[in-house]
């Protein structure tokens, strides 16, 4: 039984097409790598001005007053110290809720406790924070 010549020609043509596509893709990838390598610069080769453009400074705490309540200035440093005075479980609840954007249910799952416990820890922290800020607001005028 003789193989069908037409099928054989189709298979050869398809194989040649596939080889051409793969060859072209390999060439393109090689050229792309070569282009990237030509553009790469080590940090030690950068000028001082170029190196300064690669970083930024956090200026969040540069302002003197975060806000003012009842004639007392609440600075970011004072607020940080107030949060540090909280008991650990309350501090974690406040930080995760307000600074990490987690909700009470997510925090409760993280600490394997109930949502209402986390809500209590978070809301009861406000009285402690308020008391600390009222007592110490006038002592923290630096920054």
From TrEMBL:
- Mind listing the UniProt keywords for this protein, alphabetically? DNA-binding, Sigma factor, Transcription, Transcription regulation
Q: Which SUPFAM superfamilies is this protein grouped with?
A: Sigma3 and sigma4 domains of RNA polymerase sigma factors
ATP-binding among keywords: no
Task: Give the top-rank taxon of the lineage listed in the UniProt record for this protein.
Answer: Bacteria
Domain named RNA polymerase sigma factor 70 region 4 type is located at: 78-121
* Listed GO biological process terms: DNA-templated transcription initiation
Q: Mention one GO molecular function.
A: sigma factor activity
Q: Does the keyword DNA-binding apply?
A: yes
InterPro entries xrefs:
RNA_pol_sigma-70-like (IPR039425), RNA_pol_sigma-70_dom (IPR014284), RNA_pol_sigma70_r4_t2 (IPR013249), RNA_pol_sigma_r3/r4-like (IPR013324), WH-like_DNA-bd_sf (IPR036388)
PANTHER family linked to this entry: RNA POLYMERASE ECF-TYPE SIGMA FACTO, RNA POLYMERASE SIGMA FACTOR HI_1459-RELATED
- UniProt-recorded name of the protein: Sigma-70 family RNA polymerase sigma factor
């Amino acid at each position: 039984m003789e193989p069908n010549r037409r099928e054989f020609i189709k298979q050869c043509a398809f194989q040649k097409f596939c080889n051409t596509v793969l060859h072209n893709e390999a060439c393109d990838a090689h050229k792309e790598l070569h282009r990237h390598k030509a553009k790469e610069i080590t940090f030690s080769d950068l000028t001082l001005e170029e190196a300064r453009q690669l970083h930024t400074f956090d200026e969040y705490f540069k302002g003197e007053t975060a806000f003012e309540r009842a004639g007392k200035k609440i600075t970011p440093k004072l607020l940080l110290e107030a949060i540090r005075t909280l008991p650990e479980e309350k501090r974690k609840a406040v930080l995760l809720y307000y600074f990490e954007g987690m909700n009470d249910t997510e925090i409760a799952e993280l600490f394997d406790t109930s949502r209402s416990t986390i809500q209590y820890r978070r809301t009861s922290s406000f009285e402690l924070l308020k008391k600390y800020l009222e007592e110490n607001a006038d002592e923290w005028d630096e920054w």
